[in-house]
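Researcher: I need the complex structure. Ligand is alpha-L-arabinofuranose. Inputs:
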Amino acid sequence: MKKIGVAVLICSLALGLAGCGESEVMVLTPYGDAVIRDEGSSSASTQTQAKQTEKEETVVQKETEGKADAGGSSNLIQVGFAQVGSESDWRLAQTASMKETFTEANGYKLDFVDCNNDQKTQLDALEAFVENGVEYIILDPIIESGYEDALQKAKDAGIPVIVVDRNISAPEELYTCWVGSDFEKEGVDAAKWLDQYLEANNRAEEDINIVTIQGTVGASAQIGRSKGFNSLLSSHSNWNMLDEQSGDFTEDGGYAVMTAFLNQYEDIDVVVCQNDNEAYGAITAIQEKGLTCGPDGDIIMISFDATNGGFQKMIAGEINVDVECNPQEGPLVAELIQKLEAGQTVDKIQYVEEGVFPAETAADIIDSRAY
Ligand code: AHR
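Model: Output:
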């Protein structure tokens, strides 16, 4: 009864609330909707829509059924996590953060699905979570669009959905909350670093040719980083964005795209890789061409994620700056689940903390890094 108990606010504790009579209780769903239920007549009415009430009543019943089905006699909280895939070091670090958090020792039973960067697989995983009656769903959406139906099914079944890392374009009443990165800010931070770096190296007036190796097209990490970085192009008329192609957040993709760029463009000054793995591939491609990159190299290399591998490449002198994307979301998500279990409200949107690490700071910082 944990979830039902925490979702109900007895009106006797909130007599001041409008529309709540003596025999009525107010039910808060994990989506933030309020429902008033008449305990005496067992009929219900919402503050806004009668139809909605029926749905919320169903929610309460299904939650009870789901818990019995999935949990049996166990007290463990059933959590389903539909992970993007395993395309990058960052992704592996985020998976580790979730798996280390949602252990049986910590009171959870985790159903982890690696969706292999395939949205159909991810939608199937969400449907299976609902059918199996998990108590919470964690969704890291591969791309921003296409989740409405799956989220509606989870909502109808009364299962809170916590979206992590990447954003979705679905209406926010379809999920409980989101915790992740400010990707647009990451892009802006990268461009601001470049501006200061060029200034410090007396190149502020030079023509600067830039290429971008994008992440998976349609993923908010790609959309936000592109938008943020490119927002500074108009205020730098000497910055020329020669090309932007997707490397799908992988090392192989970074290598292939950089090889093509080097064959097509003679004078590349800056490469923006939208994650560390793409940067590893791009560095190999650059070196195969007999060129160098990094602080003393021919090409300025900007990367995102700031994983241990990225730090090592900075120490090796091959990446100039790494803009952090923090994968340690497990404990934050667990905190949200515990709040929901306790009947507390949670913030709809929460950003993780992130920094910018230029190469000259890498050697001093690497040992203090957790991923
Ligand atoms: O959504 C976060 C991004 O996805 C990370 O930058 C990247 O490494 C991962 O694959």
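Model: Summary of the prediction. The first strand starts at residue 8 and ends at 10.
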